[in-house]
Automatic annotation (TrEMBL):
This is Flavin reductase family protein. Gene3D superfamilies: Electron Transport, Fmn-binding Protein, Chain A. GO terms for biological process: pyrimidine nucleobase catabolic process. It holds the Pfam family Flavin_Reduct. Residues 27-172 form the Flavin reductase like domain. Keywords: Oxidoreductase. The keyword Oxidoreductase applies. GO terms for molecular function: FMN binding; riboflavin reductase (NADPH) activity.
Length: 175
């Protein structure tokens, strides 16, 4: 029996809502690293959000990507920001991940510990790793944007192990 092509499979699914449900179900089955992306608005106010879509794109030059919804409260700032900081969230920071994922939360109020980096971008404290990045492209993708950013500097020697997201919950790694 001949194998179907990806296009034939997509057509058989009917696309639309059924494909969207399948995508969500499949990605719930996969564990993802938890990151917080931060930036500064033109008036200096900090913005940020929790992301599980961060990926390494290239090593030379070092480029990462992440996705952000066009309806996200952080998108208006990221649409024109020159730089962002991306932070690996640690197992000890579930509350931080939840705070940055919650709409309407004052994400940078205590107990969030952060400071401004040398370029003014908010840098979270006590994370396992963080990188300051220069945004090089914003690519429209349906109701989201894929942001490509070149790594400039950072620190990967912070405390703890990474937090993961699986089955719509935050979880710790098991040995």
């Amino acid at each position: 029996m001949p194998r179907s092509t990806a296009a034939e499979d997509a057509a058989a699914l009917g696309g639309g809502e059924q494909a969207s449900r399948l995508l969500r179900a499949a990605f719930r089955r996969s564990a993802a690293g938890v990151w917080v992306v931060t930036a500064s608005a033109p008036d200096g106010s900090p913005v940020g959000f929790t992301a599980t879509s961060l990926a390494s794109v290239a090593a030379e030059p070092a480029v990462v990507s992440f996705n952000i919804g066009s309806s996200s409260s952080s998108w208006p700032v990221l649409a024109s920001a020159a730089q962002v900081a991306v932070h690996v969230v640690g197992e000890h920071q579930v509350e931080l991940a939840e705070r940055f994922a919650r709409r309407g939360a004052d994400r940078f109020a205590p107990p969030t510990r952060w400071h401004r980096g040398v370029t003014g971008v908010p840098v979270l404290e006590e994370v396992p790793a963080w990188m300051l990045c220069r945004i090089v492209a914003r690519v429209p993708a349906a109701d989201h944007r894929v942001v490509l950013a070149e790594v400039l500097e950072g620190d990967a020697s912070g405390p703890g192990r990474p937090l993961v997201h699986h089955e719509q919950r935050f979880a710790a790694l098991r040995d």
